[in-house]
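Dear support,

I submitted the protein below through the web form. The confirmation email said the job was done, but the results page showed an empty box. After a refresh the structure appeared. I'm attaching both so you can tell me whether what I see now is the final result or a partial one.
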Amino acid sequence: MIYLCQDQIVKAKIFTWREYIAKIKKEEEFNWLKVLKTATSIYNGELKGFAELSDEKEKRERELKGEMQ
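What the results page shows now:
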């Protein structure tokens, strides 16, 4: 994704939920409580807007169920 601003161009990327969890693991030095809380928030729909993940509850839970176990 590229944002064109008045005085700059900004390049951004929308994370998949897996990439976001990996980023949290790396930044938080494997703080498993924070990783678990983040994963649970994604599963429950409290954190939205990830690439390749539906915002619809049934679809999201079906996609994540196997991964979250």
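Response: this is the final, complete result; the empty box was a page-load delay. Residues 14-68 form one domain.
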